[in-house]
Amino acid sequence: MSTPAAPFTNVPRPPHPAGALRVRPLPDESAASYLHRLAHAYHVETRQLCEGIGITVHGHPGSTLGASEIVLSPTALHHLTVFTRIPDLELAIGKGVPAPGVPDAGQPTARWQPVEPARQPTRTCPRCTLHHTRGTTSQAWAYHRAHQRLCPQHLWWATPPTDRVSLDTRALPELLPAHHAHKRLTRRPDATAAYQWAAAITTRWYDHQQHLTPRWRNRLTRLADTNPPPAGGTSWALTGRDPVTYPETIALARHLTRTPRGQTDRNFLDHTAHALGLDRLVLPPGDLLWALIHTKQQRPRHHCL
Ligand SMILES: [Zn+2]
User: Fold this and answer.
1) If you measure from the C-alpha of residue 119 to the centroid of ligand 1, how many angstroms do you get, rounded to a whole number?
2) How far is CA 169 from the centre of its chain?
3) Ligand 1 center to 255 CA (angstroms)
4) What pLDDT band is residue 62 in, cutting at 50, 70 and 90?
5) pLDDT exceeds cutoff 90 at 66
6) Are residues 88 and 33 in the same domain?
7) Pick from 144, 175, 197: which residue ends a domain?
8) Which of 129, 137, 264, 304 can bridge 192 by disulfide, Cβ–Cβ 3.0-4.6 Å?
9) What's the total number of domains in the chain?
10) What does the alpha-carbon distance between residue 157 and residue 129 come to, in Å, rounded to a whole number?
């Protein structure tokens, strides 16, 4: 790769002298989110900013910011690093999207590409973002891992880009101990598999209104009472599902990592009920927890996905 000796020669300059402003990326911020904030600081669009520092932009962002990512070639990243004067920029942005497969050939190029919903970044905590950006914006997107969706300081919940805003979950104080338990859980090698099983099970129970419905309804009411209504006709039931089920998801995941093998079904169900704060648990034949019980009896090798 050739390094341009004078990267800003023969290209239009941005409206301010290069590097005049210092815009730092947020932890795990998406490249599109960072470039949007950087361009905004210079009062231009992302494409104008890129072209101003010699980066050719291919494609267009979708209508929802956060649902598309901008993938930078190594040379483009170098241009950006020089422009922003942030030496570790390469490590800081764009972690969530795989390498583009775009031949670089020393060309500074950037390409917009849509990101499938499961891999999309989530909205950052607006209060942390305001603080980090010195009051310039409360909106950004970052690749949060499952245990990072709750901001433990401000109790905001990171939502997907299709949701209009993050959720203020201060009315759900039970989320904070769940967050701490989740962080402790992540130290275990089988944490990812246990969490994924638990999340799939509680999601199914929530959607089918089983086992914990009164508790979850109560939580959803508190959430709806303290937040503006979801955008675009989306239901509260869907918007609130992840934070509403979170305490039981974590309780179930911890229980799964601690349960000794070889218990009888009744024993296992009694312990599961206890972990969830229920008197008893009676599973209908098609309950997803049966699939887990039968998998556990086969002693699978848990693997991180
Ligand atoms: Zn925060």
Assistant:
1) 22
2) 16
3) 29
4) confident
5) no
6) yes
7) 144
8) 304
9) 2
10) 13
Q: Which residues contact 249 (CB under 8 A, 6 or more apart)?
A: 178, 195, 198, 199, 202
Look at the pTM and tell me if it is higher than 0.85. Answer: no
Rounded to whole angstroms, the Cα distance separating 86 from 238 reads: 39
Do 213 and 255 belong to one domain? yes
| H/E stretch holding 58 | strand 56-58
pLDDT in tens, 189-211: 999 999 999 999 999 999 999 99
Distance from the CA of 102 to the center of ligand 1, in angstroms?
36
CA of 150 from ligand 1 middle (Å) equals 8
Q: Scan for tokens 């904070």, then name that residue.
A: 176
The Cα–Cα gap between 108 and 50 comes to: 9
Q: Are 23 and 81 in contact, with CB atoms under 8 Å apart?
A: no
Say how many Å lie between the CA of residue 147 and the centre of ligand 1: 14
Whether residues 12 and 135 share a domain: the answer is yes
Strands 122-123 and 141-142: antiparallel
Residue 6's pLDDT band, with cuts at 50, 70 and 90, is very low
Q: How far is the CA of 154 from the centre of ligand 1 (A)?
A: 4
- Kindly give the distance from the C-alpha atom of residue 117 to the centroid of ligand 1, in angstroms, as a whole number: 23
Q: How, if at all, do strands 167-168 and 156-157 pair?
A: antiparallel
DSSP count for the chain of H helices, then E strands = 12, 7
Tokens of 195: 């969490």
Q: What is the mean pLDDT of residues 211-240?
A: 93
